Amino acid sequence: MKTLKVIFISILFLGCQKTKNNFLTVGTWTICLKDGVYSEYKINENYILTMHEGSEEIWIFKNEINDSIMVLSNFKNGNSGLPYNDTLRTLSYSKHKIIIRSNYTREKFELNKADFIIDDIDSTNLELWKSKTLSEFKKRSVMANCPDLRTDDEKVIPSLENTEFKEDTVPIGLKRDSKLN
């Protein structure tokens, strides 16, 4: 009887605890964006590391994980790639895929489980780690060969062309104070 009470209390205690690190996207993920840009994400309990095709930067953001929600923000002294804090919410998942939605932009992202692992940040030799990580990323991005799925209208970038340039001259003059004279 005593053993049953201990088991019951243990199950009750462990079942009621809030789990911090069970966000479903912890791991390494890839995505081909609609414009054909290949991106990779490494998500762990402390940060999210992102790399995007065409960029020579590795972006690292702080995250806070709580069940199926992750809150992203800039590190105090890190890069400021996020103009806002964002909350990512899991919409659906399977063993090889997960769909998350940004609460800020309301966009949905379908991430694919990667069959590789991005090395942990090596703070003792940061430049070598960054160089190696970007080199490996570039090789994978070429192999991914992400297609551009935008329509012709979506590919057109509107521009402001002003063929008539009119120069205005604004006279700048000082008004003399009559009391000084």
Explain how this protein is built.
This protein is of the alpha+beta class and 181 residues long. Helix content is 21%, strand content 28%. The protein is built from three helices and eight strands. It has helices at residues 2-16, 126-144, 152-155, and strands at residues 27-32, 38-43, 47-52, 59-66, 69-73, 86-93, 97-102, 108-113. It has an eight-stranded antiparallel β-barrel. The protein is extended.
Question: If strands are numbered along the chain, what order do they take across the biggest sheet?
Answer: 1-2-3-4-5-6-7-8
H and E string: HEEEEEEEEHH
Helix share of residues? Answer: 10-25%
Indicate the overall shape: extended
* Category by helix and strand content: alpha+beta
Report the uncertain regions: 2-21
Average pLDDT taken over every residue = 79
Largest sheet: 8 strands, antiparallel, barrel
Please tally the β strands and state the result.
Answer: 8
Tally of separate helices = 3
Distance between the termini: 105 Å
Relative strand content? 25-35%
Radius of gyration: 26 Å
